[in-house]
Each structure stands twice: as C-alpha cells, then as structure tokens.
Write a structure and sequence with these properties.
Layout (H helix, E strand, L loop, with lengths): L9 E2 L5 H12 L4 H10 L2 E4 L2 H18 L7 E5 L6 E4 L3 E5 H6 L3 H16 L2 H33 L6 H41 L5 H11 L19 H12 L11 H18 L2 H7 L7 H13 L3 H14 L4 H12 L4 H14 L4 H14 L2 H14 L4 H14 L2 H14 L3 H12 L7 H11 L7
Helix pairs in contact: 1-6, 1-7, 3-5, 3-7, 5-7, 5-8, 6-7, 7-9, 8-9, 10-12, 11-12, 12-13, 13-14, 14-15, 14-16, 15-16, 16-17, 16-18, 17-18, 18-19, 19-20, 19-21, 20-21
C-alpha cells in the first residue's frame, strides 16, 4: 500500500458527493471564475492505492454491478485518503470511497450498501442528468437576473416611493437565484431517494441483506452534518435523515434476506483490510488502542506489523509478517507487505522474492506489480522492470505510477525517446498537461515518425482540454 506521504499519487477529485457537485455549480452562478478554480484546488484529495483493498472492494461490487446492468470493467472504485465517512460518484462511472468509510464499517454489508447506493446513481444516469439540470439552472438564473435588472430600471424610472428601490431590486435579483437553488436541491433529493430504492433492489437480486446499508445510513444520519433540528428541508440536497432512515428501515425489513449475515470468509478478509488501513493511516496511539498487544488475532498482528514497519522497527515488522505468512502462506498481501518493508528499507534485492510471490498469488494486483517493477529497477535489472511495468501500464493506462517507473527503466537502458514518452504519460495522468506536452515534444524528436510511440506522443502534444473541464 502506498502511504500518503511516500510518493503516493495525488489527483484532484471533484467536490464530494453528487450533492457537493450541485452546490459547487449553483455557487458558481455568483462566484468569479478565479475564486471557483481556487476552491477546486483546495478540495484536492490524495488517492490511496492498495491491491488488497481494491481487490476486496471489487469482489463486493461486481455482483451489484451485474444486478444493476452496469459495465463492471468500465466502473472503477477509487480510495480517497480522507478519514471522514463519505462516498460519491464523479467523472462518469467512478465511485470514490473515503478510507474513513472503510475503517468505520464493521461488516462487509455496510460497505456493500454504500457501493449499491452509489451504483444506483450510475445506473440512473444521475450525474449526467444533474449536469443538465445545472445547465438549465444557469439559464434560468441569468433570465431571473435580467428580469430583476429590468424591474429595477423600471422602478427607478417611475420614481416609485414604495420602499427602498435598491433594496427591492436586490431582493428581485437574489430571489430568482434562491428559487433556482431550491429547485436543484429538490431535484437532488429525488435522485438520492431513487438511488436508495435501487440499492435495495440490487441487494435483493444478489441475495444480500440490506441490514448493513441501514446501519451505514443510520451512522451517517447521526453525524454532525445532521445534528441540527432546525434544518430547512428545502435547503439540503439529501432527504431529511429521520425520513430517510424510517423509509429505509421499512423497506429493508421487507427483504427476505434481512437476517442473512456475511460469510465468515468475507468477514475475515474485511477485518484484515481494515486492520491494514488502520496501520497505514491512523496515528500510532490510535492503532494500538484499536489493536492492543493483548489482541493476538491475525488482523491485530497485521495492524501492528504495519505500524512497526512505519515506525522504522524493521526486525519487529518482519518477524510479525513472517508469523502471518506461516499461518496463511497463500495470502498475497502478507508477502506484499514484506516486500514493501524490505524495499523501502533499502533492501531491494531481498524484496524481489516476496513481491514475485505476491504477484503470482494476486496477478491482478496492479500496485503490487508496480512495486515489483520498482524493486527490479533498484537492483539494476532494467529489462525485467520494463517487462513488469509494461504490463501495469497496459492494464491500467490511466495511472501515473507505472509510467513514472517505466520512464526510469527506459532511461537506464539509454532509450531516451521512450523514457520521455513514459514521462509524458505519467505527467498527463497526473493532470499536469504543461509538463506532459513538454516531454511529449521532446520524445517526438527522438522517436520514429509514424510509429505507435510517436503517435502516442503526438496525441498528448495535440490534446486540448474541453471547455467543460
């Protein structure tokens, strides 16, 4: 797993939730463009890459995607390094889940319920329809402001003495925008209710209990966001928590699967995943409170092994990991953690074997294969590194990490044109268009015109962001 502070890939992500998206667009009606852009920069979040978590979430999601008739290959789940409890859909078919949501979820069903709800937004085309609603809202807002301005001019010309002309005009100007905002939020509340209903259908179709979803939304309702009893229901984008939980509880208990529990095997994987995340992202004292030395379970030892490695106690970490490997020799992620601990402690040659073992046990784990490529590169085996990293970039062409190390490997080989192309792709995937196009231009000067590599560089050089971005 990549820690946030250790070379972990960062991207700008959109405002949280579909709710945040709408509020951002509505606010933009009255905010200068420069202020809006700086706000987007402030909302940037770092992305966590971890093969174990990604594989587990994929196993949670695929049955839901199939029930929703959503393309599982085109739909991605992305982990956000944020301790708050949140999940949202953005950029088409991408589900973002905060680390905090996973740490707080005690059962697989709680996470599956979140995925089912967000899948409801995807299957319902809510994001695309919301964009259309926002576009319509902008038009209505402009019309309202123009009408208000006309009324203000008319009032001034007539010399009306009823009230204060300026104050009345401001009320006309802002009243139209307020109506637009309320209409948009009402639209969003209906979409949230539709996503809840869809989630319950998907859980029923896959024979899973909606109890976890109910627990999750009850937890969310108890959060600080909904503590005020004086909230105006017309000024929030989700249904009121009491109404939402009441409706969910009534519908969930009608499911014939309500009493069904998650399988012990799935619960065990869930517990290990949470322990690993806690070890990486929580404060050391928090980890030890959650998993004290008196707790000798595999998840607790896993969390403490991660903490020991993070704290520089390599011998202690390796001993704990070896104990876990002895108990579960086919657990790819124990081997991965050992390889990562060795690699990041400057023992790359020793890291290769456990990382190769991890790749063989979890061949779809792209972050593991990237780490193996990094270890091979550190040992001086550029050819082997290129083979591994080429696989990662083919399977995951949108990630910058594989391209970044691939650029280094080609550089070691003296293939500067391909090194610059890989560097351009890494910058491009990190949303750094300026550096991406600089590297692409340099690569084109060295690559054979018309070759596939040359055409890739040319595509990056000629790329122009759409006006909607």
């Amino acid at each position: 797993m990549s820690e946030p502070t250790q070379g972990h890939l960062r991207r700008r992500v959109p405002p949280s939730r579909i709710v945040g998206l709408a509020v951002a667009f509505v606010s933009a009606l009255a905010i200068p463009a420069s202020a809006q852009q700086s706000g987007q920069e402030r909302r940037g979040q770092s992305i966590v890459r971890d093969a174990e978590t990604e594989d587990l979430l994929r196993d949670y999601a695929v049955p839901i995607f199939q029930a929703a008739k959503v393309n599982a290959k085109a739909t991605k789940i992305i982990l956000v390094n944020d301790r708050s409890f949140n999940a949202f859909v953005a950029n088409g078919q991408k589900i973002f889940i905060n680390v905090g949501a996973l740490l707080d979820a005690e059962t697989p069903g709680e996470v599956i319920g979140v995925i089912a709800h967000e899948t409801g937004h995807i299957a319902g085309g809510h994001l695309a329809r919301l964009r259309q609603q926002v576009a319509n809202a902008k038009i209505l807002s402009v019309i309202g402001m123009l009408a208000g301005a006309g009324a203000m001019v008319g009032a001034a010309n007539s010399g009306s003495g009823v009230g204060n002309t300026g104050t009345g005009a401001m009320g006309i100007l802002t009243g139209g925008q307020e109506l637009v905002r309320r209409n948009l939020l009402a639209y969003q509340r209906s979409e949230e209710q539709a996503a809840d209903a869809a989630a319950l259908r998907y859980l029923a179709a896959t024979g899973q209990s909606p109890r976890g979803m109910l627990t999750t939304f009850a937890r969310f309702a108890d959060s600080g966001l909904f503590r005020s009893r004086a909230v105006d229901p017309y000024l929030i984008s989700h249904p009121l928590p009491s109404e939402r939980i009441s409706q969910l509880e009534r519908l969930a208990k009608q499911s014939p699967h309500f009493g069904r529990k998650d399988s012990p095997e799935l619960q065990a994987r869930h517990d290990l995943m949470r322990a690993k995340l806690a070890g990486f992202v929580e404060r050391p004292d928090t980890v030890l409170r959650r998993y004290p030395p008196s707790n000798t379970s595999a998840p607790a030892r896993y969390a403490r092994a991660v903490l020991a490695y993070r704290s520089g106690r390599l011998s202690e970490a390796l001993a704990a990991i070896d104990g876990l490997v002895a108990e579960q020799p086919s657990n790819a992620y124990f081997h991965e953690l050992k390889g990562q601990a060795l690699l990041e402690s400057g023992r790359a040659r020793e890291a290769v074997a456990p990382l190769r073992r991890a790749v063989s046990l979890a061949p779809g784990g792209i972050p593991i294969r990237v780490m193996l490529g990094q270890a091979l590169l550190a040992t001086g085996d550029a050819d082997a590194a290129i083979r591994e990293l080429s696989i990662t970039t083919q399977r995951e062409p949108e990630s910058p990490d594989g391209f970044r190390f691939l650029a280094m490997a080609y550089g070691r080989k003296g293939d500067i044109g391909r090194a610059e192309l890989a560097s351009a792709q890494a910058f491009f995937n990190s949303a750094d268009l300026r550096n991406a196009q600089t590297q692409a231009s340099r690569a084109m000067a060295k690559l054979k015109p018309g070759s596939p590599a040359y055409l890739k560089a040319e595509d990056i050089l000629n790329y122009r962001p759409s006006q909607d971005n």
